[in-house]
Structure to design on (458 residues):
């Protein structure tokens, strides 16, 4: 009888271990983003703000443990089987000895998207990511706060020796309860390939009409150099790109 | 003691036997895998995309459906008044150059950025307006996600403004019969000859 109960307990814990992973999500309520690329106010008019619909966001980037579980269920995304068009040769290279609770990196846009889709989520757009990232610990909109901007730039200029990434959620959450927007890794967005510009982006509002149909250009808040760096970094990526400190988190639309 | 050894042996067998069966399954899978590999696209083929489209007749199209045919592919949208008409003109120029050299077996695929406005009926209208030949296929995307995926595969950069119009880079790509990109024309001022040569040779 004891043996039988023991066997049942073992079976149940095995089943529990393989129960479908659920992300930890917080509500990011709707609002407005004053993007760093907003055109400077003319004639005293307020600079254009972008409406952001509310959404649910993962509180931290996807971790190695979470991504490994995804690979278990979707082995076609394993390093040995992934199609080269979807991930370059650096795919998952830096994660071999990485701790389970560190953010997964060396991950391509296609792979990140596949993960989010598998769990009924998606990547955030640039606007959604910047909207989340504009919040400090205490304010939803610290985009014009020089101290906040400086702490981000401090992280960008910190030399990363050893390349070992720490666990997620070690720093303090921001106003929305979201962790690690600025102190850990770069993150993928759905529309990473949406920056149209030629020449020196900061000053050049014009667009090469041979190369590009339509408009593009960056001219906004010159104090927010961190946003510009992210903007430039995204522009350097291709869908199959993998970088040792580029990971992702997913978001989910609100139920209608 | 004897019963202990017997139970241990039984336990050992019950653990190892399933793994032996799995090994056999792997052999089985190898055979199936080889068959599957012949059917599935090569690692660097665009045809690995799971994006879904419709042609101007409303038929559901996956990019892999074009396997076996040389493709000249670009992206545009019918409401575009800036350079998209020039893209169509460039593609016609390329078509004419190839036909003049006796190269007639290829398709020209124009995929739309615009799932909201470019439905099959609109594309059928555009097809007539632009007097396109039977080599052309106009594709209506199922959703923004499908557009974003194809753009990422082709290296196309684009964004949508508040009015619903698209700003986008002008890239024409030649895909071989396996869906692998062999040549790209970046910008409308670029010389199409390398792409024409690639289609001829490839």
């Amino acid at each position: 009888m004891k043996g039988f109960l023991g066997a049942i307990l073992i079976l149940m814990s095995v089943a529990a271990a393989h129960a479908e992973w659920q992300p930890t999500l917080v509500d990011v309520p709707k609002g407005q983003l004053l993007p760093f690329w907003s055109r400077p106010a003319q004639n005293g008019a307020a600079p254009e703000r972008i409406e952001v619909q509310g959404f649910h966001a993962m509180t931290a980037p996807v971790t190695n443990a979470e991504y490994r579980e995804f690979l278990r269920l979707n082995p076609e995304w394993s390093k040995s089987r992934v199609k080269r068009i979807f991930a370059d040769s650096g795919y998952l290279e830096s994660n071999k000895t990485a701790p389970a609770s560190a953010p997964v990196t060396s991950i391509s846009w296609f792979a990140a998207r596949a993960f989010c889709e598998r769990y009924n989520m998606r990547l955030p757009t640039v606007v959604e990511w910047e909207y989340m990232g504009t919040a400090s610990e205490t304010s939803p909109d610290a985009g014009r706060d020089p101290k906040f901007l400086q702490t981000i730039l401090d992280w960008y200029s910190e030399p990363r020796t050893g390349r070992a990434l720490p666990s997620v959620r070690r720093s303090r959450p921001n106003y929305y309860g979201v962790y690690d927007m600025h102190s850990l890794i770069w993150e993928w967005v759905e529309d990473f390939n949406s920056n149209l510009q030629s020449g020196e982006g900061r000053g050049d509002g014009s667009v090469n009409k041979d190369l590009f149909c339509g408009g593009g250009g960056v001219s906004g808040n010159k104090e927010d150099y961190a946003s510009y760096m992210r903007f430039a970094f995204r522009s350097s990526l291709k869908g199959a790109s993998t970088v040792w400190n580029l990971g992702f988190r997913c978001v989910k639309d609100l139920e209608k | 003691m004897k019963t202990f050894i017997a139970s241990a042996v039984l336990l050992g067998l019950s653990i190892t036997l399933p793994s032996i069966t799995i090994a056999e399954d792997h052999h089985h899978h190898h055979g199936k895998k080889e068959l599957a590999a012949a059917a599935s696209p090569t690692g660097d083929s665009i045809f690995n995309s799971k994006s879904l489209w419709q042609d101007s007749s409303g038929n559901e199209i996956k990019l892999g459906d074009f396997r076996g045919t040389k493709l000249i592919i670009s992206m545009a949208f019918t409401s575009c008044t800036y350079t998209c008409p020039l893209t169509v003109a460039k593609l016609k120029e390329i078509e004419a150059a190839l036909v003049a050299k006796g190269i007639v077996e290829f398709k020209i695929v124009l995929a739309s950025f615009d799932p909201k406005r470019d439905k099959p009926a609109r594309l059928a209208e555009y097809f007539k307006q632009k007097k396109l030949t039977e080599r052309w296929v106009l594709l209506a995307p199922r959703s923004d996600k499908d557009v974003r995926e194809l753009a990422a595969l082709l290296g196309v950069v684009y964004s949508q403004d508040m009015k619903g119009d698209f700003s986008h880079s002008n890239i024409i790509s030649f895909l071989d019969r396996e869906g692998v990109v062999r040549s790209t024309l970046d910008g409308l001022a670029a010389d199409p000859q390398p792409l024409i040569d690639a289609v001829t040779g490839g």
About this structure: The mean pLDDT of chain B is 86.
